[in-house]
Write a structure and sequence with these properties.
binds phosphoric acid mono(formamide)ester, 11 helices, Rossmann fold, 4-stranded parallel sheet, alpha/beta
Length: 340
């Protein structure tokens, strides 16, 4: 695809060659993401970071990625402090903000809403999550993490086995990741979910149409045996209309160290898009896994920076100029930020 000026709304936009291009640029970004060097290639550019749903990772990492390229960021959070609370339309909001900034990132609770933002402007718009729809940049950083965790090049992803576990109906990250993995060959998908929270048929159909191996089960232990990657997800409380409905599924799946060590292969990577629900009664990914060498969740969040830097550099057409303004970073930074 031609990235210059493009909006990134869905993983449906990508072919395998596009993924390779993004990952090549992301690899170039690692020295900046790892705080060894700094670049000012987007100096003077401004990002509008509009989040109408809660977020920690996406909002801050999109902003930090733009900052690491030398650009500045203007945020809005929630509807309450936006003029949407006074009835302003998506069209008007998008057009107004586009006069102030050079690129938009939007998270919105309604599927398709980010597309509406993009329809109302010619500046690049990046989908930071649209309701239960998609989260394309999360899928890119997830795939980048899978490749790095297993020391594989992108073309070696063929043949991967992955168990996705939890709320597969409402979880936009698993929708995007499944569609992205379906671009490869001979992927073994095991979808572990209660019947009511199964992966939507449209996403299953995408994987089936490309002859991947698909297993659906409600049994987590059956699902986690003999896979390269476990991808746990949170039961998406905010997508249920009644608290008693959500309560039926809360805590149904919980992976801890003992279960992992008893049932998984030694090289199975443990991933989760985060946030994990660490409240009693949920705990889909137990804290006793913290520090386990195969727990990839914080390497996964770290990978959000080079991936999002790469996308900004590509859609703003400066990917080949990033190193032109490079200097050594001179501030103090500990060698490791991990305490366990
Ligand atoms: N993974 C993810 O999108 O996290 P946030 O909701 O914190 O952005």
């Amino acid at each position: 695809m031609n990235f210059k000026g493009a909006s990134i709304l869905s993983v449906d936009q990508f072919e395998r060659a596009d993924l390779q291009q993004i990952f090549d640029v992301a690899t170039e970004m690692e020295v900046y993401a790892n705080h060894q060097k700094l670049t000012r290639v987007l100096e003077g550019a401004v990002l509008g970071n509009l989040f109408f749903e809660p977020s920690t990772r996406s909002r801050v990492s999109f902003g930090a990625a733009f900052n690491r390229l030398g650009g500045e960021v203007r945020d809005t959070t929630g509807f309450t402090f936006s003029s949407m609370a006074k009835g302003e339309s998506i069209h008007d909001t998008s057009r107004v903000i586009s006069g102030y900034v050079d690129c938009l990132v939007v998270r919105h609770p309604e599927e398709g809403a980010v597309q509406q933002f993009a329809d109302a402007t010619n500046i690049p718009v990046i989908n930071g999550g649209d309701g239960p729809g998609e989260h394309p940049t999360q899928a890119l950083l997830d795939l980048y993490t899978v490749a790095k965790e297993h020391g594989k090049n992108l073309d070696e992803i063929d043949g991967l086995s992955i168990a996705m576990i939890g709320d597969l109906k409402h979880g936009r990250t698993v929708h995007s990741l499944t569609k992205l993995l379906a671009l490869f060959d001979n992927i073994s998908f095991t979808f572990v979910a209660p019947d009511e929270l199964r992966m939507p048929d449209g996403i299953l159909e995408r994987a089936r149409s490309r002859d991947h191996n698909i297993t659906e089960t409600e049994d987590m232990i059956e699902g986690i045996k003999d896979v390269d990657v476990i991808y746990m997800t949170r039961i998406q409380e905010e997508r249920f209309s009644a608290p008693e409905e959500f309560a039926k599924y809360r805590g149904k799946y919980s992976l801890n160290r003992a279960t992992y060590e008893q049932h998984c292969r030694e090289n199975t990577a443990i991933m989760h898009p985060l946030p994990r629900d660490s409240r009693p009664g949920a705990n889909e990914l137990d804290n006793d896994l913290n520090g386990h060498p195969k727990l990839a969740i914080f390497r996964q969040t770290d990978n959000g920076i080079p991936i999002r830097m790469a996308l900004f550099a590509m859609v703003m057409d400066v990917a080949d100029k990033v190193h032109d303004t490079a200097r050594d970073a001179i501030w103090y930074r500990p060698e490791s930020i991990d305490t366990n």
